[in-house]
Amino acid sequence: MTLISLRNAVASAVLLVLSWSAYSAINLSEPLPINPLVKTGKLPNGLSYFIQKNPKPEKRVELRLVVKAGSILEDDDQQGLAHFTEHMAFNGSRHFKKHELISYLQSIGVKFGADLNAYTSFDETVYILPIPTDKKENLEKGMLVLEDWAQGVSMNDADIDSERNIVLEEARLGKGASDRMNKQFYPALFNGSRYAERLPIGKEDIISNFKYDVIKRFYADWYRPNLMAVFVVGDIDPSKAEQMVKAHFGKLKNPKNERPRTYAPIPADSDNAGLVVTDKEATNNIVLIRYPIKPKQTEKTIADYRETLIKTLAGSILAQRFQELTQQASPPFLGGGSGTEAIAPGYEFFSSSAAIGRAGVEPAIAALIQENHRAQQFGFTADELDRAKKNHLRQFEQFYNERDKSNSADYAAEYIRHFLVQESIPGIVNEYRYVRELLPTISLDDVNNYAKNSIPTKANKLVTYMGSNKEGEAIPTKEQLLSWTEKSEATLVSANAAKAIPTSLMAQPPKAGQIVSESENKVLGLTELTLSNGLKVILKPTDFKGDQILLSATRFGGQSLFSDADMFNARYSTSVMSAMGFAEFTPTEIPKILAGKSVRFQTALGNYTESLKGYAGSNDVEALFQTLVLRLTAPRKDADLFTSFISSAQDATKNSAARPESIFSTTLSRTLYNNHPRLTLEAKPDDFTHITLDRAAEIYNQRFASAKGYTFILVGSFNSATVKPLIATYLASLPTNDIPVSYQDLNIRPVTGVVKKDVHSGSEPKSQVSIVFTGVAQYSKEENMRLGALMEVMNLRIIDNLREKLSLIYGGGMSGSIDRVPYQNYRINIGLPCGPENVDKVIAATFAEINKMKQQGPTKEELDKVKSNWTKSHDIGMRTNELWLSYLQDATLYNTDAADILTVDQRINAITLDDIKAAANRYFNTDNYVQAVLYPEVKAAEAADKTVDQTIKQMAQ
């Protein structure tokens, strides 16, 4: 018996021993407590607060202001103004003039969009403000920001007018097939309730024309303390934070004649209904069966928590059954599932949905309903329940092990859900105890009774088909949807036959190799091993997480080693082989064998590299190594699963080209690289006709059967002494036959000169401006950082000028880097979504900013903002396994010094204003770029009266 098998047996025994003795030790009628680590309270004016000290990340606090007010509360003349109010919070307030807030936050390392943000939904508006606490005045200033958002937003008339176009541009971004179809679907989904009439984005005519007092009325009515909560989670003193909350928010006032905050009811279904919604730009065909919407019960006692556990176990088993259906030779759908989901505060529904493949709509409906009925009538098996329990227990064990290392933002999100929808927050210490003690008390009868009573059979339902209406598509009628549903409900089902599953991946471990040398790097905290098969291993034990181990190994080679004729076989070889399992195990058997373990592993064959990536919990590293060995040395071939993979891939991609964005992206790539045959483009059905099982498997084996050239890197919560014997057993036993571990240059090169391309696609009045600068460059970490800093400064300018000053865009920006393979070159991507009428203005304004940067360089204030954000981000990253893994992998692949991770701050601080100006002149070569513009199929109205010259003149003012 392997170590893994032994642990499985012990875990099962522990569950049995605990059983009813644990049941008697816990009082089910006991109310669920509030996490004792969070300080909660309510001020006399009704404002609630949640405060918790949390050290992850260090010297940082997550602030949130949550208002129980969203689009559902808008009057008829206010549709879209809950969201507009959120925008106005960033446009001036009592203590921060317009632009001052964002500028101040950028100066202390807070990035607009990535860090500082907000969102508006039907029933709430949430403001997100992460603040560094390295200076004590930052937290005080952050509280002042929240106070201003609560009741100090200026709402200046001129600022309102300038924000209208920005909100309209945001609305424009959301337009497309999904938006058009959802507007038809939502009235039926919400069963005619107010929710379908109050989409947060609102109505364009109202956004364009509302009177100033209309938005001010919304703000006055609903931004009041008895609908608010403040959340403070992070590296802070809770008592001092509580004093600040009281000082800043205790003085807020509720209106004298306040409007009642009611919640919109959702009526019950009165009959069965069918709905068909199609669009020529739809990329997916789906069917959704929504059963009656009903009141959602909240968890109040431990007995309620136990019921939720039963529900979760049943749901996970049902999900596994649906997953297995997709792995048949002729699956009934591409993907499907059933379960209960919330639709609005206080409401939930059971639903079944599927992505339609070549089998069609009727078989998909039949599979959904019959699988539901199978679970409802016959329940689940003891083995299924045992695996579900093991997985759930392991999940909560990981949560518990990470309790002191979880990010503050995650805690804040949990407490926000408690405030908004009364989600219980007993804390992970309590929850882990509940899970350990309650799981053994849950019997198969408990779970089967839940399935019997909760899975609907012939209840009133809405059956919806949403998909493409392109020529040749088999579109059902709503009458057919209901007829197929009724037929499926009348079909008799039988219980699933129990199937024995092996208990371990390996009956015996492989013959072990040896660790032949070992050295310490005390500066970086590394142990470097050389194995008897020639492989190298780098160990970096950390305490950044309590239950996480990351593995990586990358070498050169990849698809470049194969001919054009093998392009698709090489590109999809890892996906094909992953879809068939390994050794004697199918893809459905592997997760069952690994029940109770936290393990992920994948192989990737890129253009020039081939990578191994893995993840494991601290106690699961042997299972990770076993998975790795079998994936590399014992790939499995299965003709039926290969057929299923190909057909599913073709079905999943058959409508991808319908999206205007996809057409545009493909055209841009083809234009930029002169239609090179080895371009990696969005997958299309024809790609998969070139793949054969034998050749895909042969290519996989050629590149992965030998581990030659790999350096394995392990970073995370492990003990080196414990993992070394496992490394000797599994990694040192890998074959290292001689294979090429270098790449061949595919000679994919960008065009030269100025090339412009217009693309006309899509029916919505939306455009996309893409400008790509390319060229040869000399790589160094310092030079790549200078280019990155240039991009960040340019993004500040784009926000300040194209968005805030000119109101031409909602979002967009630049990114750029220097690549080393297959040759040293740089690429700068500029992406700016906008209205068709503004394309010329956006292009002119962008080049005006580029030329200004080339001539004048950045300001000290701009560069300081970038440096502050980078420094704080790196400080946080230094306490993550992911950043260390990335640096170590880069060092091993390119043979550079991993100690560079310790000097990042020095390189950041060394960047000068002249460096950025010089980089702008070096990389913004206006004699060498590709410009592509997406226009709608039908040309939009001509540009407004202001000319491009006027736009440039306005920018200069």
**Envelope shape:** globular
What is the number of helical segments per DSSP (H or I, 4+ residues)?
31
What is the CATH fold-level name of the largest domain? Cytochrome Bc1 Complex, Chain A, domain 1
Flag low-confidence runs.
1-24, 940-957
Radius of gyration: 29 Å
Structural class: alpha+beta
| Total number of beta strands | 24
Number of domains: 4
- What proportion of the residues is helical, as a percent range? 40-55%
Strand % is: 15-25%
Intertermini distance: 78 Å
What's the architecture of the largest domain, going by CATH?
A: 2-Layer Sandwich
CATH level-4 homologous superfamily of the largest domain: Metalloenzyme, LuxS/M16 peptidase-like
Top-tier CATH class of the largest domain: Alpha Beta
Spatially, the strands of the biggest sheet line up as 13-14-15-19-16-18-17
Write the layout of secondary structure elements.
Blueprint: H1 3-25, E1 39-42, E2 48-53, E3 60-67, H2 81-88, H3 100-107, E4 117-120, E5 125-132, H4 136-151, H5 157-173, H6 177-189, H7 204-209, H8 212-222, E6 228-234, H9 238-249, E7 273-279, E8 286-290, E9 294-295, H10 302-325, E10 335-344, E11 347-355, H11 361-378, H12 382-401, H13 408-421, H14 428-438, H15 444-454, E12 462-468, H16 478-490, E13 515-521, E14 526-531, E15 536-541, E16 549-556, H17 567-571, H18 573-578, H19 589-593, E17 599-605, E18 609-616, H20 621-633, H21 639-653, H22 660-672, H23 693-704, E19 711-716, H24 720-731, E20 754-760, E21 767-776, H25 781-805, E22 813-819, E23 825-834, H26 839-856, H27 860-877, H28 881-894, H29 904-910, H30 913-923, E24 929-935, H31 948-956
Parallel strand pairs: 2-6, 7-12, 15-19, 20-24
Antiparallel strand pairs: 1-2, 3-5, 3-6, 4-5, 8-11, 8-12, 9-11, 10-11, 13-14, 14-15, 16-18, 16-19, 17-18, 21-23, 21-24, 22-23
